[in-house]
Structure formats: C-alpha cells, structure tokens
C-alpha cells in the first residue's frame, strides 16, 4: 500500500517532554500538510509544504511547534515542552500541486494520524 | 476567512432510512467542496467532491450538489446501512491552499 504513513500511531508523554512525529506521503505528491484534530472537532490546519519549502503556517502553530521536510519527501513535526493542551490527533495529508488552470480539485489524502496524550 | 458550518450531531437512524447532513460555507471566489468520512480507528477518507456550481458529487450511494446560490453542499443518501456509521466532515478548498473543515457529524445507523 502506498498511502500516507504516520508514525508513531500513539504517543504518551509527560508534560514538558519533547515529541516528534513522522509522516511519509504518497511518493509522487509534492504537497504535504499537517493538521490537528481534537475530540469532537474537525481537523484544524497547522502548516503545509510544497516540496521542501514551508509555504504557510497557521497561527495555531506556536513557537514550540516546528515542522520540517528536508528533502521534499518525508516530514517531521516536533513539539517541544509539551503541554496538556497539546493532546490531540496529529494528521498528515499529501496532494499533488496542479498547474494554474489545470482542472480538478486539490484532493488531500490523509494518513491514519498520530495520537498524542500529554499527562 | 473561509468557514464551514455543519449540522451538529449525533444523528441516529434506522437501517434503510434517508440521510441528510446539512453543510453551508463562507468563502471568497469559487471554492471546491468535499465530504470526507472517518470510520472508527481510521483516517479521513474522501467520500465525494464538487469543483463548480451545480456539480453533483457522488460515491457509494451518497450525493451532494454544489449550490452556489445557497452556499450549501448537503450530503444525502437514500438508504443508509449499518456500515455507514462514521463521522462525516464537510470541507472546502478556497483561496487558501489548505482544506477548511466543519466540526463533523457523527452518524450511527441501527440495524
């Protein structure tokens, strides 16, 4: 299966610790997105990359959060000094950038997510 | 900015009942509209999409029509099954390149 892969699927950590999540997108997809989803809510956009360039960051992405996509393939999302409010599902998605005017929507394919619990 | 307002749940139906989940949106320009579904323990999956006014997206018996005049994209299915039990999210892709999601509607179908 060549879908979007996320690791680890579950992470339990103590407040103040650092955590890192990894996302492997679909190989031919040049766009990669990170979202956060809390219980009973829809996913909220955090950031996205086109190839290795981080093109947009949400105001939700505090200074404790950093995302990288060093070679334009996999991406990592690191949360430093975790807080209980960081407990959520972190979703990764990928898509193909279409040329301007090309038909079709920007369809995102999501991974299964990485669930973070901060104690 | 872009936003999506979705019918609040949870929604509980009997098998073979008719389903409607309302979705309205606010966006500038001409967004693309989507319905995603999240089954228990799984990731979000694209259910259907529509890219311009009056387009009808359909998949697995579900349908939704892009209504620009009412800024709506309501999800419908004529006869639901137990296996349709999931959380359904309406979303749009507008001037920003990312998806903006509604808060989701939990559907439970009873046998």
Layout of secondary structure:
The complex is a heterodimer of chains A (119) and B (111).
Chain A: E1 5-7, E2 10-13, E3 19-24, E4 31-37, E5 44-50, E6 53-57, E7 65-68, E8 75-79, E9 88-95, E10 109-110, E11 114-118
Chain B: E1 3-6, E2 11-14, E3 19-21, E4 23-26, E5 32-38, E6 44-50, E7 56-59, E8 62-65, E9 75-77, E10 86-93, E11 99-101, E12 105-110
Parallel strand pairs in B: 2-12
Antiparallel strand pairs in B: 1-4, 3-9, 5-6, 5-10, 7-8, 8-9, 10-11, 10-12
What descriptors fit this protein?
heterodimer; A: 119 residues; mainly beta; seven-stranded mixed sheet; four-stranded antiparallel sheet; globular; B: 111 residues; six-stranded mixed sheet; 12 strands; 51% strand
Low-confidence stretches of chain B: none
Instruction: Report the average pLDDT across residues of chain A.
Output: 91
Distance between the termini of chain B: 41 Å
Sheet with most strands of chain A: 7 strands, mixed
Shape assignment of chain B: globular
Overall shape of chain A: globular
Structural description of this entry:
The complex is a heterodimer of chains A (119) and B (111). Chain A is mostly beta strands and 119 residues long. Chain A contains no helices and eleven strands. In chain A, strand 5 and strand 6 form a beta hairpin. The radius of gyration of chain A is 14 Å and the shape is globular. Chain B is mainly beta and 111 residues long. In chain B, the strands form three sheets. In chain B, strands 2, 5, 6, 10, 11 and 12 form a six-stranded mixed β-sheet that branches. Chain B has a four-stranded antiparallel β-sheet with strand order 3-9-8-7, with no helix packed on it. Chain B has a two-stranded antiparallel sheet with strand order 1-4. Chain B is globular. Classes of the chains: A mainly beta (119), B mainly beta (111). Chains A and B meet through strand 5 and strand 10 of A and strand 5, strand 6, strand 10 and strand 11 of B.
